[in-house]
């Protein structure tokens, strides 16, 4: 989902009527100041749309300094709710609620990867080796490193650890890469228990569109003829927004299926990131 755009008077009026608050409340929106031209824009959709303050009846601040984000202030007066703009420091410690939106599954055309603030995560975990969890298995070949963490955590927790350690969840963007990974793991079969492991692919926001979240170009999973899906998969169930693999001892070894991102009892496969500065990343670029 994305933070709410209140780009029209129609949307503003609809929210006033439908939210039915019992008291005044404040919510983060996607509105924020654009530093270069000092205008404010709605940024929830990924495409910036300049805010028309006159239509919304909001007073535009003279300066955006220290007030770069817009909080929707729902003021409850009797049975009527008026929405006003509150201009807030985006890094404030003040806590507000949030309103999000997304296209319905029947109309969506795009999916997105989780937006991880990697640099902030690395700073917060500085000095902590988050990869030193129990049961981490490692394979190395041709400058490439594959890791399996057989702890049972959610997709988002694994992504957080991977972000801090520069080890994203494994993507299988091509047949060559999948064959390489399977061959590498099968070279030491006793290392990896048979079972279910998260891959990087998600369908967040659009259940019928799957995307690899490889931190480089996040490509769509369009030609999947080289992948083996379980019967009835990939599922279009909007609650199943992540992709996992069932690893077995029989070909094709990897069988993919959709699953809830917060599912319990799932481990993870990860890979060394291409963002690193050493030559150990070079082999992946040819796959």
Task: Please provide a written account of the structure.
Strand 5 and strand 6 form a beta hairpin. Helix content is 15%, strand content 27%. The chain is built from 5 helices and 14 strands. The protein is α+β, with helices and mostly antiparallel strands and 287 residues long. Strands 2, 3, 4, 5, 6 and 7 form a 6-stranded mixed beta sheet that branches. A 6-stranded mixed beta sheet has the order 9-10-14-11-12-13, sandwiched between helices.
Question: What's a concise summary of this model?
Answer:
This protein is α+β, with helices and mostly antiparallel strands. The chain is 15% helix and 27% strand. The two termini are 31 Å apart.
Instruction: Enumerate the spans where pLDDT stays under 50 for 5 or more consecutive residues.
Output: 127-134, 275-287
Radius of gyration: 22 Å
Count of DSSP E strands? 14
Portion of residues in beta strands equals 25-35%
Largest sheet: 6 strands, mixed
Average pLDDT score = 81
Number of helices: 5
